[in-house]
Amino acid sequence: MFIIEYIKNPRLVGAIAPSGRYLADKMVNEINFNKAKCIVEFGPGTGVFTEKILSKVKEDTKVLLIEVNNEFYNILKEKYGYKNNVIIINDSAENIDIILKQNNIKNVDYILSGLPFASLPKEISRTILNKTAKIINEKGCFITFQYSLFKLKLFENYFCSINYKKEIRNLPPAYILQCRGEKNG
Ligand SMILES: C[S@@+](CC[C@H](N)C(=O)[O-])C[C@H]1O[C@@H](n2cnc3c(N)ncnc32)[C@H](O)[C@@H]1O
């Protein structure tokens, strides 16, 4: 399934298989689930990170999943569509500002991203990161993963502080980036 979607659209899918559970653990590690009122996930794919989020999240915390791929969207709908606190949107993360307005969400604590910034068209990455940095509240965090650090500069254009750690038990090994504070915001 994943590999078929990759073959159809390699730049957007960006990986031939879903992320592993060790990477998923590290992606959600920084989230303060007691305080979070709204968590957004960009590019959930088949839901590896979503599963972790939903196993830890409080019942009244909103979880917004934004997936551009129709097949993955249908899988997510089937898996999580029945949950009251989960909103699943079939659209591009580029439209995050509009999506939040449409769903009457004013405050976002965390945005977790599975987006393949290494292969996404530059303009799309820029639009998403620019909006993301503006949307997350002061104490919040943008969490993403990358297979290399060669796009670090891209994230530094939008965030004041970036910490990263490596998860070698993923295939391929991946860096988890935690980005905070809108640059020049
Ligand atoms: C590398 S896969 C990661 C999937 C999942 N998070 C994981 O780690 O297994 C990238 C995902 O981002 C989605 N995607 C790519 N561009 C997107 C965009 N502009 N908006 C929302 N989702 C997007 C793809 O369809 C795919 O599901």
Give a concise summary.
The chain has 185 residues and is an alpha/beta fold. Helices cover 36% and strands 26% of the residues.
Structural class: alpha/beta
Mean pLDDT: 96
* Order of the strands making up the biggest sheet: 3-2-1-4-5-7-6
Query: What small ligands are held by the chains?
Result: S-adenosylmethionine
Rg (CA only): 15 Å
The percentage helix is: 25-40%
Residue runs with pLDDT of under 50 for 5 or more positions: none
The oligomeric state of the chains shown is: single chain
Main beta sheet: 7 strands, mixed
Distance between the termini: 41 Å
Secondary structure tally: strands: 7
Q: Would you list the SSEs in sequence order as H and E?
A: HHHEHEHEHEHEHEE
Please tell me what the overall shape is.
Answer: globular
Strand content: 25-35%
The total count of helices amounts to: 8
